[in-house]
Specification:
17% of the residues lie in helices and 37% in strands. It is built from nine helices and 36 strands. The strands form seven sheets. Strands 7, 8, 9, 10, 13, 14, 15, 16, 20 and 21 form a ten-stranded antiparallel sheet that branches. A seven-stranded parallel sheet has the order 27-26-25-24-23-22-28. Its cofactor is Ca(2+).
Length: 609
């Protein structure tokens, strides 16, 4: 069939117009407050790029978006077929967090795109102070046997920033972005003369482990896969990449629940069997199990833990987690724990989990075990993360609380699987971190979520001098500052040796989940002050790094017209803990006079007259 000249001209005009609509077209998305702005466009090279502004100031210049496949590139020669916008405002009850309510308020833009013959979407969300984005790649015939070899997302900063570089359980090294040689883990914290920025990750349940590497431009970071590529075997939603902006260090903590806000929600009600609490690790014998349960009950702990070795050498394939070493009458200990209201958590490492998980889930339920601690899991590869996501769901279905250790870090999945109370992915107290490290953590790793820091508090028999590089007062303070619904206390200590009751009294009172939290003062690596409320009682943790901290702290968070009994647990001149008590009201100015590496923990209880 022949086309007339007129019809040919109409077709050409439509084609050009269609391309003009796509190439050079920009799409804008503002936060609910309108302070945070995202701009997305298809540039002159037909690439999808984005930029971010905060109160009119540019934070990210044009930065790349896309995915590199084996044979094709998603995000090049792109056509934006349509856009969709929506707004969401939710108040979500959450009894396992730093606050009892999560405010989830954002505007969303979804771009439906085609690139290299592949249909995909990019979803953007604008929160007050944060921008999040992810790629959605539906299953398609042309993607059979394809894999994502590289994520093309970049973060091209408009200013010079210092990056607090670290990997998994390492220490932190502040350096200029352009000096980055290694990779840096998520969440990554960056500081300029004007802003504090966190680049984070949320809802990684089927991807691979990604980190940040130096980009091609000055002051630029790019996403890099740590271990493997990503197979496209089904519909894929990549993890969210987030950019959060604050004017000061403590302002970063308004984004510490952002991974929860971006992850699928379990439901409106958390099962009653999911109980947060404190746990003490015990030696692997029956008597210490019984003694440990008595200690836990007397000190308001909720769990005991039998760690590596209770079923034999943990890395030997012959060690069977269905069998118990002769020295430990586990069934007797579990039954005694039930009588005392104390749950028993069992450690199983990757070797035992991979070989026996489906067998031990119903078995441990029959035994009356309360929870698992997973050890040496693979949180670095796509296969490992997919396996782990399925294992978390299985423990939830069977009714076990869960703590995951070693390289695994949170991405908000506790909002999907609330039995996942905590995880490691942090250089904890058993690795003898110094005061600087302790003062960096609240502004870096803890922005991703809960962490099991494993406190090694001294007792009357052992000082753990090689494991404790800060004061006892700081150890107490960090139990408030560091968030974890499951807190491991007295990691190396034998409960029978903790006769220093005055020193450890605060651990008896401090909760592990909170109704309300306020980050009062702080600077990365220098000092921190956090106030948290449970019920009508407030808890306050103050700690410092390598320098003394002198100043004043206003107790403005207290309720007006109420009197509070303030009990201060702090370092004394003999390297012990002293306790002093006074009465205060809202607005009281607390004088801070902490020595380097020191700290203080405080309770504020309402006085009924």
């Amino acid at each position: 069939m022949k086309l007339s000249i007129k019809k040919i001209l109409i077709v050409l005009i439509f084609f050009v117009a269609g391309n003009n609509v796509t190439y050079g077209q920009s799409y804008e998305l503002g936060s609910p407050s309108k302070d945070t702005k995202l701009i997305v466009k298809v540039n002159s090279e037909k690439e999808l790029v984005y930029s971010i502004e905060q109160k009119g100031s540019p934070i990210l210049a044009w930065s790349d978006l896309g995915l590199q496949l084996k044979k094709k590139v998603i995000g090049r020669n792109i056509r934006v077929q349509k856009q969709k916008k929506r707004s969401v405002k939710q108040q979500l009850a959450w009894t396992l967090g730093e606050n009892s309510t999560i405010t989830n308020h954002f505007n969303e833009l979804t771009l439906f795109c085609q690139s290299s013959g592949i249909d995909f979407q990019v979803v953007f969300r604008a929160f007050n102070g944060s921008i999040a984005f992810r790629y959605i790649v539906p299953k398609q015939t042309q993607l059979v046997s394809e894999e994502i070899q590289k994520e093309l997302s970049t973060f091209n900063f408009t200013d010079n920033y210092t990056l607090y570089q670290y990997n998994q359980e390492s220490v932190f090294t502040p350096l200029a972005i352009d000096s980055l040689i290694k990779t840096c883990d998520f969440p990554a914290t960056l500081v300029s003369q004007k802003y504090y920025v966190s680049i984070g990750e949320a809802e990684n349940n089927s991807y691979t482990k990604a980190e940040l590497t130096k980009g091609k431009l000055a002051n630029s970071l790019a996403v890099a896969f740590l271990k493997d590529s990503v197979r496209l075997t089904t519909d894929l939603a990549t993890p969210w990449r987030t950019v959060s902006i604050a004017n000061n260090a403590i302002g970063l903590h308004q984004f510490s629940d952002l991974p929860y806000r971006l992850s699928k929600r379990f439901g409106d009600t958390i099962p009653t069997w999911i109980k947060p609490g404190k746990v003490v690790r015990l030696s692997l014998n029956t008597q210490d199990g019984i003694t440990g349960i008595d200690f836990a009950a007397a000190h308001n702990f909720q769990y005991i833990l039998f760690d590596a070795g209770w079923y034999g050498p943990e890395f030997r394939s012959a060690s069977d987690p269905t069998q118990i070493i002769p020295e430990l009458d586990l069934h007797r200990v579990i039954q005694y724990g039930k009588e005392k209201g104390i749950g028993v958590i069992l450690y199983v490492n990757k070797v035992g989990l991979r070989a026996h998980l489906d067998e031990i889930l119903p078995l441990y339920k029959k035994w009356g075990v309360a929870g698992f601690k997973f050890g040496f899991v693979d949180g670095l590869s796509q296969e490992g993360i997919v396996w782990l996501n399925n294992a978390i769901k299985k423990t939830l279905d069977y009714g076990f609380i869960l703590n995951i250790h070693d390289n695994y870090k949170p991405t908000g999945l506790s909002h999907t699987y609330p039995n996942l109370l905590t995880q490691e992915g942090i250089r904890g107290n058993e690795n003898a971190p110094d005061a600087y490290h302790n003062m960096v953590l609240p502004f870096t790793r803890f922005l991703a979520g809960a962490a099991d820091y494993t406190y090694c508090y001294p007792n009357s028999v052992k000082s753990f001098a090689n494991k404790l590089l800060v004061s006892k007062g700081q150890q107490l303070a960090l139990s408030v500052v560091y968030f974890s619904p499951l807190q491991a206390i007295f990691w190396y200590g034998n409960p029978a040796d903790y006769t220093n009751e005055t020193e450890i009294e605060f651990f008896k009172y401090v909760p592990t989940v909170w109704d309300e939290s306020h980050y009062l003062q702080g600077e990365i690596g220098k000092y921190i002050s956090v106030a948290r409320r449970k019920g009508t009682t407030w808890y306050l943790g103050n700690a410092t790094g390598f320098s003394d901290w002198e100043g004043n702290l206003s107790l403005d968070f207290l309720t007006s017209n109420k009197t509070y009994k303030m009990t201060i647990f702090e370092d004394d001149e003999t390297k012990g803990i002293r306790k002093r008590v006074l009465e205060v009201k809202k607005g009281y100015q607390l004088a801070i006079n902490l020595k380097a590496k020191g700290g203080q923990a405080i309770t504020l209880e309402e006085v009924n007259r």
